[in-house]
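Collaborator request, handled under Task 6.
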Amino acid sequence: MEHLRDIMTTDVEYCTPVDNVFEVAVKMKQEDCGAIPICENGQLLGMITDRDIVIRGVAEKRPNSTQVTEIMSEKLITATPDMTVDDAAKMMAEKQIRRLPIVENNKLVGIVALGDIAVHRGTMDEASFALSEISESPEVHH
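Structure tokens returned to the collaborator:
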């Protein structure tokens, strides 16, 4: 049985609370990703997604200099490295999330995306189910 530590990305790019929306958007472009964790001293404070930037930033006419803390999602669902891949896939489907921050001892140690789960044999059914469930709910923020 595989655990999240076996498939998680450990070299996670992040921003800090003092960064602004423009800096996060540039990092998303550089990393070709749609979500950036917000951390301070390794501790996960929130997550900002491309959707957050559009809905809470652009649509509310906030300037690019707006601090990320003003538009990030703060109530995050997280997992530990010891969680099984199957349990993570089920949780992601139930909670309707595409990216799962992995936290250990209050520190961000990795991240697992739905695509990471989909490429592992034995979890294709769970990943397909999670994707179909998540795709039906546009209000999900991370």
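The cover message to the collaborator said: "Residues 124-135 form the longest helix (12 residues). The first strand starts at residue 35 and ends at 40. Please let us know whether this matches your experimental observations."
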